[in-house]
Amino acid sequence: MRELPPRLAWLNDELADWNAAGLRRPRRVCTPLPEGRCRLDGKKLCNFAANDYLGLAQDERVREAAIEALRDAGVGSGASALVSGRTPLHERLEAALAAFENQEAAVLFPSGLAANIGVIAALAGPEDVVFCDRFNHASLVDGGRLSGARLRIYRHSDLTGLARSLGKASDARRRWIVTDSVFSMDGDLGPLPELTDLADQYSAGLIVDEAHATGVFGERGRGVAELMGVEHQIDVRIGTLSKALGGLGGFVAGPAELIEYLWNRARTQVYSTALPPAVCAAAMAALEILQSEPERRQRLWALSDQLRQGLMERGIEPYPGSTGPIVPVVLGSPAAAVAAAAQLKDRGYLVGAIRPPTVPQGTARLRISVSAVHREEDVSGLVTAIAEVVGRR
Ligand SMILES: *Cc1c(COP(=O)(O)O)cnc(C)c1O
């Protein structure tokens, strides 16, 4: 390796510290394969570390839609949506997303992360207070910071603490409650009905990130708000095309005025190049499959239940409160999580080892995510492997 420039020498100390604490993450290369598999370090693995819940990232019909759009429209959109990058495919996808969510309109963002940052920074301002669940996705917290609002982090799903905090913010111009609907590292659900009550009581806006819920939760796959019957009580719902929809891009669907406001003011979409048209075509095909094949969602749930059941039969308790395809198994130290993931890899399974700062100290964990394209044998094999690796029955 080349010598570091002297003014960057501090990086060496920093990296060495991370190494010593087991917190340095390798930059690995993983080749996606069909049927919930991937190739890593030359070895074919069953991939339980992706968010492709419905297997649509590799679906033939989705691929074909993208290929056709690539042929017609080329690769890049060439400009931000505001300038000239919003192609007919963007317009059609926005209309399809609005129809799916039973809303008037929708606006696309370069990613779910960009949507979260852009939406909160556009809606909230220095005269406001933003209340964030401690386990919210990093981008929701970053959006709150960027907005210049006072940021209040409340304990995970602590409604009493949140109410107390809301009560102290009556002098603010506006109050915003911000939550994930499915917490991404824990797999549990935000208490949306209770949060809508608090939003009413303290006249706060409620912003919900459905990243892991779209396509997975609710009768029609519209997320936890649909499941809990509170779709009309949520002020702003943010979604992503990158998880169950298998592609890339964030979106907000809502009243026309909200969409118009975000179109003009959300800087992460105003100042960033619009999504490639083929990505929009792929998302549209994926959205159609999500709606026409509810059996994918049912299969995802059946496999998730099989995994939870199998683990519990062997005395391994998934993270309390977790439900659906995200199945976290807390092991404690980063070293324990990394060692367990490495042993699972030897046995043919790729599982995420999630460590601080992504999760709190002492709660490093395996994070297993199931896909509808996994086989029953994949799940039963994983259960056996985990039982061997974490040393229970
Ligand atoms: C993954 C994730 C995002 C970011 O979405 P991308 O489309 O990957 O940028 C936002 N919120 C939550 C809760 C997530 O898990």
Question: Given the helix and strand composition, which structural class is it?
Answer: alpha/beta
Domain count: the total is 2
- Helical run tally: 15
Helix content: 40-55%
Query: CATH superfamily membership of the largest domain, which one?
Result: Type I PLP-dependent aspartate aminotransferase-like (Major domain)
The second-level CATH architecture of the largest domain is 3-Layer(aba) Sandwich
Mean pLDDT: 97
Shape: globular
Strand content: 15-25%
Give a verbal description of the structure:
With 393 residues, the protein is an alpha/beta fold. The chain folds into two domains: 23-52 and 294-390, Aspartate Aminotransferase, domain 1, CATH 3.90.1150; 60-292, Type I PLP-dependent aspartate aminotransferase-like (Major domain) (Aspartate Aminotransferase, domain 2, 3-Layer(aba) Sandwich), CATH 3.40.640.10. The protein is 42% helix and 17% strand. It is built from 15 helices and 14 strands. The protein has helices spanning 10-21, 60-73, 81-85, 88-100, 112-123, 138-147, 159-167, 192-201, 224-227, 256-265, 267-270, 277-292, 294-313, 334-346, 376-389, and strands at residues 30-33, 37-40, 43-47, 105-109, 129-133, 150-154, 175-180, 204-209, 236-240, 250-254, 326-332, 349-350, 352-354, 364-369. It has a seven-stranded mixed β-sheet, with helices on both faces. It has a four-stranded mixed β-sheet with strand order 1-2-3-12. It has a three-stranded antiparallel β-sheet with strand order 11-14-13, with helices on one face. The structure holds pyridoxal-5'-phosphate.
Can you tag this structure with a few keywords?
globular; 2 domains; four-stranded mixed beta sheet; Aspartate Aminotransferase, domain 2; seven-stranded mixed beta sheet; alpha/beta; Aspartate Aminotransferase, domain 1; 393 residues; binds pyridoxal-5'-phosphate
